[in-house]
Amino acid sequence: MHHRIYHMFANLVDFEKLKEWCEEWDIYGYGRLLKTQPITSIDDIRNMMVLCQDHHTGTSDEVDGGTGIHNLPIGEFMMQKLALPGCNPIPQDGESFEGAMERVRHHQKREEQAANE
């Protein structure tokens, strides 16, 4: 379970702003279902994301656990889910950065060849 706002910030968070943000980024639908309920704790379900181990803390020794949400900026983390097949620019378990870039370049070459045919 990953908290979007961490416990270390619990005494600093504006819970009304957190509630509004969780309604905008409503990944499971709880923001809509609980819209009339205030958020009073960091442990509110609307502040949580269920992630597998690879995407929570990461597992890759090659890239220092670089697949996890704790290791990547949000845009890079999200690309693991949103990239075209074969285009994930984030090194996965056992893969080097150079290996990931080679995989992406190979995909781009195939796309260019297909466009030129």
Strand content: under 5%
Give me the Rg, rounded.
18 Å
SSE string, helices as H and strands as E: EHHEHHH
Distance linking N and C termini:
47 Å
- Extract low-pLDDT stretches: none
Count of strand segments = 2
Helix content: 40-55%
Number of helices: 5
Shape: elongated
Characterize the quaternary organization of these chains.
single chain
Main attributes of the structure:
mainly alpha, two-stranded antiparallel ribbon, 5 helices, 40% helix, elongated
Overview of the molecule:
By secondary structure, the chain is mostly helical. The chain is 40% helix and 3% strand. The protein is built from 5 helices and 2 strands, in the order βααβααα. Strands 1-2 form a two-stranded antiparallel ribbon. The longest helix has 20 residues, at 97-116. The protein starts with a strand and ends with a helix.
